[in-house]
């Protein structure tokens, strides 16, 4: 997985037992690699700076080559994989158009196994937004029979999956495990929310001359200013309420940064961090509005922002709910999306749809998810 923060490649080795929605996944190892000079080229392409066809093809190949060292490391430790699921780097997302750049054949040839990529394309072709792509995998990993799970990704953008407890079966008829799964999954919801680390990293780079606010230390040292907070929250909340998946056309980065332009770097980061948390908490509260008052709810966070202590503290304050990282369930917060890509790749290999119509808005006909490349040995 490479996220919209465009800073690193995260790779997970996952042992999957079973088929389809009955599959169970266990993380057996993970690795990462920085982009180094590739980051600047990817950011340029993400800004829609012009590239020749040759430069674009070279970028796709070089990105694939950058995946090889961490993939080889995991293969050395855990054996040649049966399947690799490659998300690629999102360089453009404005449905029905979307581009997740990667040359999958380079990886297939090097590792000697099948590779599935372009996992959003089928959903987009069926009229969906192509995102969020992870809610079904969130259900597979984090569901609870008796409690609500809100899984929040704090990446370049934030998004959330709402997994309710298992619905009670109808006493009038006998239901199979498959029917129970189908009914439960039908209740899962997910949505993109607002700018997150794209804004915080931009403020860190442009205002504090640091790559990012490590652990949220600068934000913790700063002071929240009410008027800029309200202005930024209004802007982010309008992004959340748009009902669209977020991408290239939704970045509103300059407008968001302008709301805190008159503050010191530390105060700008403190105010922006709290505005992001407030916007996310509004979404959580809206999704939980119809739950039973006594229902148990746990918020699970992942992504780079899950290590931002200021952001987590603000989330706890605004939601008044327990907030934990996904590490609590054996999935380190920085590789949760990589683990879920593996699950989605297996679902695609098994012939199932990997997105949910209630989440992406796609039409219901069966999809052929992902593009498979088989190594020529």
List the helices and strands and how they pair.
Layout: E1 8-17, E2 24-34, H1 38-46, H2 53-78, E3 83-85, E4 89-94, E5 97-101, H3 104-111, E6 114-117, H4 121-125, H5 135-142, E7 147-154, E8 157-163, H6 177-185, E9 189-195, H7 197-208, H8 217-221, H9 226-240, H10 253-258, H11 265-287, E10 296-302, H12 309-319, E11 323-325, H13 336-349, H14 357-360, E12 371-373
Parallel strand pairs: 3-6, 7-10, 10-11
Antiparallel strand pairs: 1-2, 4-5, 6-12, 7-8, 8-9
Helix pairs in contact: 2-3, 5-13, 7-11, 9-11, 11-12
Tags for this model:
12 strands, 2 domains, Nucleotidyltransferase, domain 5, 377 residues, alpha/beta, globular, 5-stranded mixed sheet
Helix-strand makeup class = alpha/beta
How far is the first residue's CA from the last residue's CA?
25 Å
Oligomer kind:
single chain
* Biggest beta-sheet profile: 5 strands, mixed
The rounded Rg comes to 20 Å
What's the CATH architecture of the largest domain? 2-Layer Sandwich
Could you tell me the number of beta strands?
12
How many separate structural domains?
A: 2
Task: Report the portion of residues in β strands.
Answer: 15-25%
Helical content stands at 40-55%
Average pLDDT reading: 91
CATH class descriptor of the largest domain: Alpha Beta
How many H/I helices?
14
Give helix and strand order, one letter per element, not per position. Answer: EEHHEEEHEHHEEHEHHHHHEHEHHE
Predict the CATH topology of the largest domain: Nucleotidyltransferase, domain 5
CATH superfamily of the largest domain: ATPase, nucleotide binding domain
